[in-house]
Amino acid sequence: MKDSKSLVKLIFKIFISILLLISVGFLGLYVYNSSPSNLVKEKISEKDWVPKDIQLEIPKGIVAKDVEYGYQLLSETSKRIGPMAEDQKMHFSGNNMSCTNCHLKAGTQAGSASWVGVTKRFPQYNGRANKEITIEDRINGCMERSMNGKKLPNKSEEMKAMVAYMEWISEGLPKERQEEFNGFPDIEIPNEAVNLETGKALFIKECMICHGETGQGLLLTDGSKGYQFPPLWGADSYNNGAGMNRVLTAAQFIKGNMPFGQASYNKPKLTDDEAFHLAGYINSFERPIMENTEEDYPDLKKKPVSTSYGPWKDQFSAEQHKYGPFPPMIIYYKEKYGMNKTK
Ligand code: HEC
Ligand code: HEC
After folding, report:
1. What's the predicted TM-score (pTM) here?
2. Is position 167 within any domain?
3. Which of 66, 84, 284, 327 could cysteine-pair with 79, CB 3.0–4.6 Å?
4. Structural domain boundaries enclosing 210
C-alpha cells in the first residue's frame, strides 16, 4: 500500500517537472520571437550608435502610441496643431511650417539643434526668461516664435507626446556623443556687416531653386505635410522673436544644413562668410512681428548681441544689432561685464 502511494507521488513529480520544462521552453521562444533583442543584446560601440529612425520602427509595430503621435505633431505640425487642423480648438501653431523644417531628419540630424539628448539638457537656465526653464517651456518658445503661434498646455497630450518622442529617439545615446547632437556648428564671426548684395547673389545661386525667388517656399496643396520647401520670410515664416531671426544663429544653421542635401554639420558647402551674408539676406525681409518682445531678457546684458529688436544694454545701433559687425559688440560686453558672448 505504502509503496504504491510513493510510486504515484514519484510519477506525479516527474509529470509536473516535464510540464514545467515545456512551459519554460515555450515562454523563451515567445519572448525571443516578439523581440529577439531582449535575449541577444548586441553591444553597439559608442561611435556606431545612431538615433532611432521612426520610419524604420513603425512598420515593426513596436512604437508606442504617444511616441508615434509625437512624431506626427512634430513633422505634420500645421495639419495636427496648426492652421490646417480641422478642429479650430487645435490651432496652436500660427504658420504652416513643421518643427522638422528646422530640426531636420525628424529631429535626429546633428547640427540642426537636434532633439537627440535634448530632454536631458533641461531644466536649463534661459537668458530670455532669466530663469530655469523646462523642456516644455523650450518647446513653447519655438511654438510662439518659430511657429508664430501660442503655447501648448504643459499637461496636454500633445506636449507629452512631443517629449515622449524626443526621449525615444535618444534612447541609449552614449555620453561621448551628446555634444555632437547639441546645437549648431560654430562659425567664425566675420568682422564686417552683412552685405545684402553678396547675400542676394548667393541666394540666387544656391537657394532660390527650392525656396523660390520671393522666399515663399513651396506649400504642398494636398494639405498633408505642410511645406515641401519651407518659406524663409513673409507672413507664413517664423516671426522676428525666433532664434532663426538672429543673423548669427541663422548663419550657423545654414552652414551646417543648407543647401539641403549638399551640406551637413561635418561637411558644410558654404564658407562661414557666405552663410553669414545669406543669413542677413533672408532676415532682411518682412516677417510676422511678435508682441511684447521688449519683455525678453529681463537682465538686458544677457541679450545676444545679434538680437534685432531692442532695447539693448549698449549704445550700438539697431542696424548693427541686426547686421553686424558683431565683434565690436562682443568685445564691449567682454570689457564692460566680463561676459563671453557667442551670438
Ligand atoms: C524656424 C526654425 C525652427 C522651427 C520651425 C522650430 N524650431 Fe525649435 N529651435 C530653432 C532654433 C534656431 C533653436 C535654437 C535657438 C537658439 O539657439 O537660441 C531651436 C531650439 C529648440 C529646442 C531646444 C534645443 C536644445 O538643444 O536646447 C527645442 C526642444 C525645440 N527647438 C523644439 C521645437 C519644436 C517642438 C518645434 C515645433 C513646435 C520647433 N522647435 C520649431 C528653430 C526652429
Ligand atoms: C534642394 C532644395 C533646397 C535648397 C537648394 C536649399 N534649401 Fe533650405 N530647405 C530645404 C528643405 C527641404 C528644408 C526643410 C527640411 C525638412 O523639412 O526636412 C529647408 C529648410 C531651410 C531653413 C529652415 C526652415 C525655414 O524655412 O526657415 C532655412 C533657414 C533654409 N532652408 C535656408 C536655405 C538657404 C539659405 C539656402 C541656400 C544656401 C537653402 N536653404 C537651400 C530645401 C532646400
Report:
1. 0.90
2. yes
3. 84
4. 196-337
Q: Give 40 Cα–ligand 1 centroid separation in angstroms.
A: 37
- CATH code of the domain covering residue 256: 1.10.760.10
CA–CA dist 327, 320 (Å, integer) = 11
Query: Which three-class secondary structure state does DSSP give residue 178?
Result: coil
Q: How many domains does the chain have?
A: 3
Q: In this structure, are 80 and 164 located in the same domain?
A: yes
Q: Rounded to whole angstroms, how far apart are CA atoms 38 and 84?
A: 41
In this structure, the answer to whether residues 200 and 323 fall within a common structural domain is: yes
Say if CB 236 and CB 93 are below 8 A apart.
Answer: no
Pocket probe mutation, ligand 2, options 55, 79, 101, max atoms within 8 Å of Cβ? 101
Give the other-Cβ count within 10 Å of 299's Cβ: 9
Q: Which of 287, 307, 285 is nearest to 297 (CA)?
A: 307
pLDDT digits (tens, 9 = 90+) for 11-35: 778 777 777 777 776 765 665 565 5
Residues 179-216: tens digit of each pLDDT: 999 999 999 999 999 999 999 999 999 999 999 999 99
Q: Which of residues 147, 181, 215 is at a domain's end?
A: 181
Ligand 1 atom 36: the closest Cα is on which residue? 99
Q: Is the domain of 206 the same as that of 173?
A: no
119 CA to middle of ligand 2, Å? 26
